[in-house]
Amino acid sequence: KLMEIIIDYQKDYDRIVIDTAPTGHTLRLLSLPELLGGWMDRLIEKRMKAMELYEMATREDKKMKSVIEKDPVLSKLNERKRKMEQAREILTDGELVSFVFVLNPEKLPIEETKKAVNTLEKYNIHVNNLIINRILPDNVEGKFWENRKKLEEKYLNEIVESFSNKNLIKIPLIDEDVKIDNLKFVSKYFE
Fold first, then answer.
1. Strand 99-103 to 127-135 pairing
2. pTM for this one?
3. Residue 169: φ, ψ to 5°
């Protein structure tokens, strides 16, 4: 369905924002055109071979020859293959598509984002921006928050070093969930 949305609606909108499932699920989803492309090729090849054998068996039957030429299964397989190729073209076009990962300045999200970015770039899918979310304010008080701030600084430095070729957008920790009402407040960090 995601690929259909991208293919069918890309011309109608300036931006299509898709807030996806956790990283592992998203990576599997995005690698589907690649994986299914080879699978589709083999299915098409097998179907054509079966149709050739069928044609040999019904060589004298002109009506059957017409059925073979209009094979709906082969037609459907070719249509799906074409859509997957089209999805692949769109996903790898840096002018059309860019993935933006959102991560908190913590060890596990950093490692997960490194892996995800490397995987996408292996498939020539562009990742130009990262959003570093929930950054603590500078003026924290109390031993717990001071320790958290020091740890956060360490992880912020790791993010800057690890993703030096990316545009890093820093969003502070805010005291409520980001909803439609306060999107304007958060949007100023994207300028």
1. parallel
2. 0.76
3. -110, 120
- Can you say how many angstroms the Cα of residue 78 is from the centroid of all Cα atoms in its chain? 24
Mark the ranges of the chain whose per-residue pLDDT is less than 70.
2, 21-22, 64-69
* Residue 184 and residue 106 in one domain: yes
Count of C-beta atoms within a 10 Å radius of residue 132: 25
Across the beta sheet with 167-172, the strand order is 99-103, 127-135, 167-172
Residues 84 and 115 in one domain: no
- Domain end (from 64, 91, 118): 91
Range of the domain at 174: 98-191
Q: CA dihedral in degrees (185, 169, 177, 5; nearest 10)?
A: 100
Q: What is the pLDDT of residues 93-128, one digit of tens each?
A: 888 888 899 999 999 999 999 999 998 898 888 899
Residues 55 and 139 in one domain: no
**Residue 19 DSSP symbol:** -
